[in-house]
Specification:
alpha+beta; BirA Bifunctional Protein, domain 2; Rossmann fold; 4 domains; 25 helices
């Protein structure tokens, strides 16, 4: 005899530790044998397909947590242990579906005998118009419950509106279909088992629908996995041009899997997309769905259930375009025309991606061909919609293409490293192979994110290196104009994303564009060309303030909202950062700049250009200058070496400007020339010592510098007097600088 009133008293225990222990010790050992007898009575063989689950594991974990001082306080208010259940599940592949549950609910003071299922099957039944048959299959004396802490009964006549009300706010409740008994008094075990058997029998018609739903779901998802399994697609041809295809491995998602793929035009990534294989979709459909996403938009979103049936079934998909600004009819007609030209079967606004053989559980054309059709169709849709511009090698040209500037039309990018490094090494600048290789890898290692910061002392050639690299990609000399390289100086007053993306001026009734935005828009049109942007001295303003929208958009592949004005046609309302944009930034660290936040550093490769190779630099200097200033250069190089030990050395720019001044002095009429050492003294005080500042850590450096200047420039030198003064200030104040 089951003492249900006593069971309820155990559920009422306030102490979580004691409650869980008593339920484990006194309720679970009683209910398990009863449930096993019931399973034997209905003739269900336990094993690979049918298994028994219970609440015991959760109760045991909570019991131990309640005894642990670390978690005990959090468990005081827990309701775990106020229930107990044991259930029979059907296992299909790696998923389990509940067929019947015996639940003792101490919160609602009920025994509930039910089958439990989530929101998605009911949503599917509403979508395929089976819901009325489903509700009729539920016995009249059975209820539909929902809620965990407090059970709510949903009347059958209100159930369909309830399901529909959950879709838009994305509420995904669980439901229990069954009967309830009061958790009080006494109940004979045999009668309890008989009640379970009766509930099992009455749930038979509903269970048949549920089994059918499970089987259709599994078959549809299996078809999706056939498509997901193939990664052998290496190229595709669109608009007469051949593109490389790189399909990545499957990634686990909440309701299925996702697979990235990249499309390359030569060595340049044209676009990055994802194929989603959803078991159930949180968004628009409860069915097993395949999604193909490009440029932040779902260009294909369709259920695989369309091909589940008898024999061979063609997979037809109906396409529609929704837009407030585009002529949908023309877009649709163009898209369908392009599909037909690429040998994809089209009828009106529908197209066929393949044929599924239900008997063989395979695609007649092979999963690889079907997958390629999905990718091709998505690229064509993106192109037709204007989200992606596919370059064309066809004979026809678009409006204005014949008028494109020769300099741009003739430039073709080439990321072959050997050619890039040869171009850079043949320039007048001195950069080591290690630096060039590091920049190349930092810019090209990631297919969809190209963001590199170059730090270091002023004058080491950070800006020149960026220009050299961008020009080398296009086979241009350093001095050549590169239409795909833009230097944008950062201003200290940049405080938000409008500095990069512009803004809508309500006063002028127009969108104020920036150079950064213009480059992005141009990059969207020429997807096969890398576009380089250099943000010069980017930490003059707080980088995370003006760059945060860009960083988030690159990371998430989501669109950046720009405006809401339907009258603006030259600027899109939203913008996706294309993967052919390469952003570089130079940063200097001094009292006029801001530190770089971790958010920015985490999303960038950071290079430091502080090492200076004056030996290689000297080899490239004009021969006449070398002959005139060999002694001065030797002294300056020794000074650089001394300062470099304290990170106060100077770069190529300072060296070059000092040598140019010394050389100009050398060419003055003899009666006006400075003495060579006096001229050297002047440039050292004007270009080197002005940056000296510090505390007691530079004490030894000033002492060495005082001695070195006295030997090389003489006791009367201006530079020596500055160093002596700074040394005295350091001893007196504990800190010093060149500027008084």
């Amino acid at each position: 005899m089951l003492n249900l009133t006593y069971f309820q008293s155990l559920f009422n225990e306030d102490n979580t530790e004691i409650r869980c222990r008593k339920v484990l010790d006194e309720i679970s050992p009683v209910m398990k044998p009863i449930f096993h007898q019931f399973v034997e009575r209905i003739g269900i063989p336990l094993g690979n397909e049918y298994i028994i689950r219970s609440y015991d594991k959760t109760l045991t974990t909570t019991y131990h947590d309640a005894r642990n001082p670390t978690y005990a306080e959090k468990k005081k208010e827990s309701d775990i242990g106020r229930k107990h259940y044991i259930k029979l599940n059907r296992k299909v592949d790696d998923k389990e579906y509940n067929f019947i549950t015996l639940e003792l609910d101490g919160i609602s003071r009920m025994i509930i005998l039910h089958t439990e299922l989530n929101f998605f099957p009911f949503w599917a039944w509403v979508r395929n118009d089976q819901i009325n048959s489903i509700l009729e299959a539920i016995p009249s004396d059975f209820s539909i419950f929902t809620g965990w802490k407090e059970k709510e009964i949903i009347p059958k006549e209100e159930f369909v509106p309830y399901i529909k009300s959950c879709i838009k706010p994305r509420k995904r409740p669980w439901f229990q279909v069954g009967i309830s008994l009061p958790l009080e008094g006494n109940l004979e075990e045999g009668a309890f088992i008989a009640e379970l058997v009766a509930v099992w029998g009455k749930l038979g018609p509903f269970r048949s629908y549920y089994n059918e739903e499970i089987d259709v779901s599994q078959k549809a998802y299996y078809a999706l996995m056939l498509i997901a399994a193939t990664r052998n697609i290496k190229e595709t041809q669109l608009l007469g041009r051949t593109y490389s295809v790189d399909i990545g491995p499957l990634e686990e998602q909440k309701h299925g899997k996702r697979q990235p793929f990249n499309i390359y035009d030569g060595e340049q990534m044209l676009t990055k997309g994802y194929i989603g294989y959803l078991d159930y979709s949180e968004k628009d459909s409860p069915f097993q769905t395949i999604i193909v996403q490009l440029e932040g938009h779902n260009h294909i979103f369709t259920s695989a259930r369309a091909i589940i049936g008898e024999g061979e079934v063609e997979w037809w998909i109906t396409k529609s375009f929704a837009s407030q600004t585009a002529d949908n009819t023309m877009v649709m007609a163009n898209a369908m025309r392009l599909l037909g030209e690429h040998h994809i079967q089209v009828e009106g606004s529908s197209y066929c991606v393949g044929t599924f053989d239900n008997a063989m559980q395979s695609f007649a054309e092979g999963a690889e061909k079907v997958k390629k059709t999905f990718i091709d169709a998505a690229l064509i849709f993106a192109h037709a919609k204007g989200k992606l511009e596919l370059p064309s090698d066809a004979a026809t040209t678009g409006p204005g293409e014949e008028d494109a500037p020769e300099t741009e039309a003739g430039l073709e990018p080439n990321f072959t490293f050997s050619e890039i490094i040869n171009t850079i090494c043949n320039s007048q600048f001195t950069f080591s192979n290690d630096i060039i290789r590091d920049l190349h890898l930092n810019l090209t290692a990631l297919d969809d994110k190209h963001f590199v910061l170059l730090s270091g002392i002023s004058g080491t050639g950070k800006t020149q290196l960026c220009r050299l690299y961008a020009n080398a990609v296009y086979g241009l000399e350093y001095e050549s104009e590169n239409p795909y390289f833009s230097i944008i100086p950062v201003r200290p007053d940049w405080t938000d994303a409008t500095a990069l993306f512009g803004y809508y001026s309500s006063f002028e009734k127009r969108y104020v564009k920036t150079e950064f935005l213009q480059v992005l828009l141009h990059a969207l049109k020429e997807r096969d060309k890398p576009h380089f942007i250099l943000l010069d001295e980017m930490n003059l303003a707080r980088v995370e303030y003006y760059l945060s929208d860009y960083l988030s958009a690159v990371e998430s592949r989501k669109e950046i909202p720009l405006h809401q004005d339907d009258g603006i046609t030259d600027i899109p309302k939203k913008l996706v950062i294309p993967p052919n944009v390469y952003v570089l930034g130079t940063i200097n660290i001094d009292e006029t700049t801001h530190s770089i936040s971790d958010k920015v550093l985490d999303r960038a490769f950071v290079m430091t250009l502080s090492d200076v190779d004056f030996d290689s630099y000297w080899e490239r200097v004009d021969q006449d200058l070398k002959a005139a200033l060999v002694n001065e250069f030797t002294i300056l190089r020794k000074l650089h070496l001394m300062l470099s030990r304290y990170e106060l050395h100077f770069g190529y720019r300072s060296m070059g400007e000092m040598l140019q001044k010394l050389y100009a002095n050398h060419h003055l009429p003899e009666e006006y020339q400075l003495d060579s050492l006096e001229a050297l003294d002047r440039v050292i005080s004007e270009k080197v010592l002005t940056k000296v500042r510090g505390d007691e850590r530079i004490s030894d450096m000033l002492a060495n510098l005082e001695q070195w200047l006295g030997v090389n420039l003489g006791p009367a030198s201006i530079s020596l007097q500055h160093v002596k003064r700074m040394k005295q200030e350091l001893e007196y104040y504990g800190a010093t600088q060149f500027w008084r």
